[in-house]
Every structure is written in structure tokens, then in C-alpha cells.
């Protein structure tokens, strides 16, 4: 992506994973905010998957149980947005080139360059936003082993950010932003919140199905 920055000139950079397919209204729904707010560096939208992940395919309750993305792209990112702490998730987002130039492009120090890039942008005083409307869809991980490897990589990257660019330290962030980023760093270390979230929705479904 940093190489692409050197070969392009557009002020707004729209980023999708190679397996994501966007709707025609994506830019119509996102670009206007950059014209309205000159300090806005990033708009992130939810990741939506049209194929079932390994848990949805194999659990008895299937798609009736919300996957962990519903927690992150629901309560977590909406809360981040409230405190101006929305972070980049690697796809389905629009970023302002001027902001990236101040951070010397996308972060390369960690394997979660997306979240680290957003942290760097906000340390520079830029704001970010979350638009909670799915406007692109991609492929979920196909096998449990791949699913675990993916989550392990995200956990590793967040831990790297915690070690190398601790959001609780340094300048440029408000107290609320520091707490939001701390929550992101620890997201994969403490699964209790995700467990409670899934049980809240899955137990009534299972009870209804077997009673």
C-alpha cells in the first residue's frame, strides 16, 4: 500500500481486501464526510461476510448465533466512534492522503498495520469516524485452523502495538481515546466479553429450538 501511495495522486484512498466486493453506493456514503470535516482522516465501515465461518457451519445453532464481528463492528466500534477512537480495520475504509503523509504512510512496525496506522493518525491530531452500515462483503475463513491463525495474528499485532507504541503513553491522545485503544490491545487477551455476548444471543435460540 505504501508503494501504491507513490504511484497515485488521489487525495482520498479507498481500500478493500482482494476478496471484498463493494456496493455502488460506498463512495456516495463515505466521501461527503471528508468534505465536511477537514480534520477527518479515516472513515471505517463494517466487514461483512457472505460465506459462513467455521463456527457458523459447524455449531448446532449455526447462523442464529452472532459471530464475534457483530460485537466488534457493533458495540465496540460504535463506542470507539463516540470517543473519536475508531481505528482502521484494513478494508472497507477511506483514508485521506494528507493525513497518511504525516505518518509517512501506513505503519509497518507491526503485523496489524491497520490499527497501528489509525493510532499514529490520531496521535497527530486527526479524527476518525465509523459508519455502521455494511456496504461491502467478503469471504470468511474457510477452515478452523485458518480462523485460529488469523485471530492469533491479530492478537500478536495488538500485543506488538502495546509494546512498541503503548496508547497509554506518549502524546496526542485524549484519556478516552487511550482507554479505547487499550481495550483494542486487550481484545484478544480477555475473551469473557465475547463469551457473554454470544451466550446472550445463543442461549434463547437453543432453548427455543429444543423446547
UniProtKB/TrEMBL annotation:
Membrane topology, record value: Multi-pass membrane protein
Keyword vocabulary terms for this entry: c-di-GMP, Glycosyltransferase, Membrane, Transferase, Transmembrane, Transmembrane helix
Signal sequence, start to end: none
Pathway: Glycan metabolism
Boundaries of every Glycosyltransferase 2-like domain copy: 13-187
InterPro entries attached to this UniProt entry: Cell_synth_A, Glyco_trans_2-like, Glycosyltr_2/OpgH_subfam, Nucleotide-diphossugar_trans
Entry's localization field: Membrane
Protein name: Cellulose synthase catalytic subunit [UDP-forming]
Organism listed in the record: Vreelandella olivaria
Amino acid at each position: 500500500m505504501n508503494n501504491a501511495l507513490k504511484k497515485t495522486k488521489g487525495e482520498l484512498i479507498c481500500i478493500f481486501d482482494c476478496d471484498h466486493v463493494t456496493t455502488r453506493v460506498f463512495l456516495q456514503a463515505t466521501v461527503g464526510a471528508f468534505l465536511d470535516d477537514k480534520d477527518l482522516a479515516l472513515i471505517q465501515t463494517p466487514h461483512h461476510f457472505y460465506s459462513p465461518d467455521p463456527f457458523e457451519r459447524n455449531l448446532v445453532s449455526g447462523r442464529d448465533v452472532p459471530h464475534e464481528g457483530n460485537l466488534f463492528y457493533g458495540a465496540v466500534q460504535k463506542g470507539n466512534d463516540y470517543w473519536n477512537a475508531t481505528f482502521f480495520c484494513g478494508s472497507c475504509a477511506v483514508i485521506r492522503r494528507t493525513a497518511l503523509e504525516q505518518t509517512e504512510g501506513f505503519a509497518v512496525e507491526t503485523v496489524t498495520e491497520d490499527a497501528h496506522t489509525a493510532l499514529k493518525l490520531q496521535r497527530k491530531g486527526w479524527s476518525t469516524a465509523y459508519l455502521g452500515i455494511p456496504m461491502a462483503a467478503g469471504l470468511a475463513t474457510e477452515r478452523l485452523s485458518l480462523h485460529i491463525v488469523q485471530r492469533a495474528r491479530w492478537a500478536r499485532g495488538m500485543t506488538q502495538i502495546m509494546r512498541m507504541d503503548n496508547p497509554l503513553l506518549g502524546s496526542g491522545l485524549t484519556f478516552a481515546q487511550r482507554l479505547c485503544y487499550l481495550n483494542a490491545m486487550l481484545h484478544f487477551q480477555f475473551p469473557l466479553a465475547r463469551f457473554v455476548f454470544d451466550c446472550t444471543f445463543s442461549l434463547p435460540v437453543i432453548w427455543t429450538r429444543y423446547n
